[in-house]
Design a protein that fits this description.
The chain is mainly β. It is built from 3 helices and 10 strands. Helix content is about 5%, strand content about 30%. The strands form 3 sheets. Strands 1-2-7-8-10 form a 5-stranded antiparallel sheet, with no helix packed on it.
Length: about 220
């Protein structure tokens, strides 16, 4: 991101009359002196992950037992779209709070294009525009690992339950989608959404309902 008007003016390539500190820096990748579509080049894979994986664990100790399943995906990328890149979309209605972390003048009434203006850095540009949605600022690593299921149980001693005519009594607590480890923010990495034009490339948005967490308490009785 540009940090000052001087940096914009000395960049060596035209950035447009409306450029301000905090705007994304677009690179002249092919070094032809012009920033256009010819500077597009691959930065990440899209679609299917490099690989999916799962890890099953089970353990027991005395009358306690445990079973856990970790699953995830590695080497999968997704691009932010719509609400996650447009702070003032839909007429400025319901702007998400994390968009407040953006470049802004220390004095709200200051002239954006004055070299004397003092700026407070942030994650997003002051003007709220999204730059190029397929650039490195908006393409995200959607790799993740999730504790998909976990069940912990306890089998009561036989000498306690046999008096009631019970051969075996086990109580358990189980959970589903308990923990998720990912660098992808604000959305569920397992349900990012889809590109509305191709329906293949992951397209991160707020229109996919997140995966629910579920907890269950149960008893298994054998007579």
């Amino acid at each position: 991101m540009f940090t000052s008007l001087e940096e914009i003016r000395n960049y060596g390539l035209p950035m447009g009359q409306g450029s301000t500190p905090g705007d994304w820096i677009l690179n002249d990748w092919n070094e032809d002196g012009v920033i256009d579509g010819n500077d597009d080049h691959p930065i990440a894979t899209s679609g299917l992950p490099l690989f999916n994986y799962g890890i099953n664990l089970d353990a027991s100790w005395k009358n306690f037992d445990m079973v856990a399943l970790f699953q995830g995906a590695y080497g999968v990328y997704a691009q932010y779209g719509e609400l996650l890149v447009s702070p003032l979309s839909f007429g400025g209605q319901n702007t998400l709070s994390f968009f407040m972390d953006r470049w802004r003048p220390a004095d709200p009434n200051a002239d954006y294009f004055s070299t004397a203006t003092e700026w407070i850095p942030g994650y997003y540009p002051v003007t709220g525009h999204d730059g190029r949605r397929t650039g490195t600022n908006l393409v995200q690593d959607a790799s993740y690992m999730r504790l998909k299921t976990l069940e912990v149980g306890y089998t009561l001693p036989a000498n306690l339950v046999s008096k009631a005519g019970i051969k075996n009594l086990r109580v358990y607590l189980s959970g589903y989608n308990i923990l998720t480890f990912t660098g992808l923010k604000n959305v569920d990495p397992e349900r990012t959404g889809a590109d509305p034009t191709t329906d293949s490339t992951p397209y991160v948005d707020f229109y996919s309902y997140p995966v629910n967490k579920t907890y269950s308490l149960g008893v298994v009785i054998k007579f």
